[in-house]
Amino acid sequence: MFGVNICRVSGVSMQPRIPAGSFVLCMGALRTKLKPGAIYLFEHPRFGQLIKTLSNVDSAGNLWFKGENNHSVSMQEMGPIRQNRVIGKVTWVISA
């Protein structure tokens, strides 16, 4: 499945890397291995759609995401995310 999503970032959790109010282009069709340090759009069961940086992939294949500043939900509070919840990789940022 191939998809392109354009999303507007609300909140400051990804600043300074992605300023609040910016638009991001997310490319779907994740056929390659997810890379720590890259930014992804994913569906969280509690928080809805989030844009966060992939911190690591644990031995069970769970993805652990983090925000870029202290105003983000913590990795522990977000918990592990399964790969099938990833919508796409952020490939382009239009800063506000």
TrEMBL record:
Pfam families recorded: Peptidase_S24
Ranges for domain Peptidase S24/S26A/S26B/S26C: 6-90
InterPro entries the UniProt entry points to: LexA/Signal_pep-like_sf, Peptidase_S24_S26A/B/C
Gene3D superfamilies noted in UniProt: Umud Fragment, subunit A
SUPFAM superfamilies: LexA/Signal peptidase (SSF51306)
Residues annotated as signal peptide: none
Coiled coil: none
Protein name: S24/S26 family peptidase
Lineage: Bacteria, Pseudomonadati, Pseudomonadota, Gammaproteobacteria, Alteromonadales
